[in-house]
């Protein structure tokens, strides 16, 4: 699949005060932005996650976009040029509302003697695992049956490959569905992936009594909980599955956590993928 670099042009209008970083824009109620997602595009389309927070109007035959802040909140605006999408996050703020007071620092809970035996034995086959990522709230999915693996980042990437034959596909929902890609041009899952391997990689497990704070449930699984203070003043908390040592939730301070929300370790049959494609233009997922 060809990689296309997307260049963005932002022009502020009528006292707009926007900060753009990694396609993230912050504006106030009543501010107006004009965005030009692509330098050149012969066919452009738009998708808006919510019409509640902004007024959105294409300009110059869709070459540019006018955005006006209506009420506080965040919406995702996706522009697609010839089926290549890019997503912009636009947050509207109310300048008359005071920012919330900073959160009090976390108080370390009482640690307990750790009587368990920590071993990291992550699943290596027959799994379907979905992870909610912090910030934007995307969900990454990892699935594997034998040599076949599939990955979706919840945004633009939806891939399926075979680690034995090198066959490789990507999914284009608006065009021809599953499409052949260059053989072997993928990165296999390997032994494990984040956040399952977070605790195993980030914490010295020789003396876990200094971090262990008891049990708590994730996905109805009784997990070990650990509270680890960092040298830079931050705190990382882990919820670990005692059965295999996998991290099911990882949280820094009070930020949104990485959290596993689908944890199927007995995944036996594909219900999606290129095997289900019947013709060139079959868009079946």
Characterization of this structure:
With about 280 residues, this protein is mostly beta strands. Helices cover about 0% and strands about 40% of the residues. It is built from one helix and 20 strands. The chain has one helix at about 200; strands at about 10-15, 20, 25-30, 30-35, 45-50, 55-60, 65-70, 75-80, 85-95, 125-130, 140-145, 150, 160, 170, 175-180, 210-220, 220-230, 235-240, 245-250, 260-265. The strands form three sheets. Strands 15-14-13-12-11-10-20-19-18-17-16 form an eleven-stranded antiparallel sheet. A five-stranded mixed sheet has the order 2-3-9-8-5, with no helix packed on it. It has a four-stranded antiparallel sheet with strand order 1-4-7-6, with no helix packed on it. A hairpin with a 5-residue loop joins strand 13 (about 160) and strand 14. The longest helix is centred in the C-terminal third of the chain and has 5 residues, at about 200.
Q: In brief, what are we looking at here?
A:
By secondary structure, the chain is mainly β. 2% of the residues lie in helices and 42% in strands.
């Amino acid at each position: 699949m060809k990689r296309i670099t997307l260049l963005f042009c932002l022009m502020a209008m009528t006292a707009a005060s926007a900060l753009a970083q990694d396609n993230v824009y912050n504006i106030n109620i009543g501010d107006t932005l004009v965005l030009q997602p692509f330098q050149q595009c012969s066919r452009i389309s738009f998708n808006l996650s919510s019409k509640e927070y902004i007024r959105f109007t294409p300009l110059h035959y869709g070459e540019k976009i006018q955005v006006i802040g209506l009420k506080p909140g965040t919406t995702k605006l996706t522009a697609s040029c010839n089926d290549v999408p890019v997503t912009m996050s636009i947050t509207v703020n109310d300048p008359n509302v005071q920012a919330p007071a900073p959160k009090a620092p976390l108080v370390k809970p009482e640690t307990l003697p750790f009587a368990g035996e920590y071993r990291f034995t992550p699943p290596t086959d027959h799994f379907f695992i979905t992870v909610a990522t912090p910030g934007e709230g995307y969900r990454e999915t990892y699935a594997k049956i034998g040599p076949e693996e599939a990955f979706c980042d919840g945004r633009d990437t939806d891939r399926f490959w075979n680690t034995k034959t090198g066959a490789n596909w990507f999914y284009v929902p608006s065009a021809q569905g599953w499409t052949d890609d260059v053989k072997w041009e993928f990165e296999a899952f390997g032994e494990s992936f984040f956040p399952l391997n977070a605790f195993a990689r980030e914490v010295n497990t020789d003396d876990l009594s200094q971090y262990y704070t008891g049990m708590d449930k994730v996905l109805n699984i009784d997990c070990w909980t650990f509270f680890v203070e960092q040298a830079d003043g931050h705190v990382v908390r882990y919820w670990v599955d005692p059965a295999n040592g996998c991290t099911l939730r990882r949280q820094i301070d009070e930020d949104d956590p990485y959290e596993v929300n689908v944890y199927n370790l007995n995944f036996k049959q594909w219900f999606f993928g290129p095997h289900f494609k019947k013709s060139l233009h079959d868009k079946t997922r």
